[in-house]
Amino acid sequence: MLDYYRDLATDYHWIFPDEIVTFPGVIGGTSVENVELIQEAVRALPPGAAVLDCACGIGTDAMALAHAGFQVTATDGSPSMAAEARRRLPADVQVLVARWEELPVAGPYELVLCLGNSLVHAGSHEAMVAALSGMRRVLSPTGTLIVDSRNWELLYRERHRIVTSERLRERDGMRSCWVYVWSIPERFGEPCLAEIVLLLVRPDGGFTHRRYPIEFQPFTPAQLKDRLTEAGFEITGSSYHADRQRYAFTCRPTGPG
């Protein structure tokens, strides 16, 4: 799996509003359309429960969970993203570089999160089932897995080629906005490419931009459900709607691990 986030990691915070990246953060903030479903599952956890964020990115959800008193482990497949998370997170949050199918943690965790539209990088059907099986391996028999995804069918249906941020963000004297430039194949299921173009205005008024290409392997909600079932999960909650940009599933393991 290519590390599309190697160079993007230090700029990734620009994608999120201040309340997501600034302490104490927002639980589920990387999946803002699904915050209600995510926070409902978190509220059901016992105080201080062990939680794994296995697609931690720069650590925004892990930060909010740690602030809420949970025992948090954060992993990411990108060494650069994990390094940025380590820089941002409190010292008592363990941060590791790990692929989903090879999670170097024993668990068991009462909650495993895989948010931020991360599963799209798993690749093939078989690779995603292996990834989900890795998450199940470290989940408590009574635990909950939460996964989210972009609604790829909606993206292919609407076929918006250019998507821009709603407003400028300002941090450390810099101002920024971003543009997604999509290359969407005619046939669903073929990989699609997004080039994230970050536009930056420096304090002296100078202007620069940076480009980050990322490839995605789309899948339907039905395909995700099938893969979750194959990995040993049953779905207990869903925020899916055909006209929503993103959705999330809550799941629990079935049978012995």
UniProtKB/TrEMBL annotation:
GO terms for molecular function: glycine binding; glycine N-methyltransferase activity; identical protein binding; S-adenosyl-L-methionine binding. Residues 51-143 form the Methyltransferase domain. The keyword Methyltransferase applies. The keyword Endoplasmic reticulum does not apply. One of its GO terms (biological process) is sarcosine metabolic process. InterPro entries: Gly/Sar_N_MeTrfase, Methyltransf_25, SAM-dependent_MTases_sf. It comes from the Bacteria. CDD domains: AdoMet_MTases (cd02440). Keywords: Methyltransferase, S-adenosyl-L-methionine, Transferase. One of its GO terms (cellular component) is cytosol. It holds the Pfam family Methyltransf_25. This is Methyltransferase domain-containing protein.
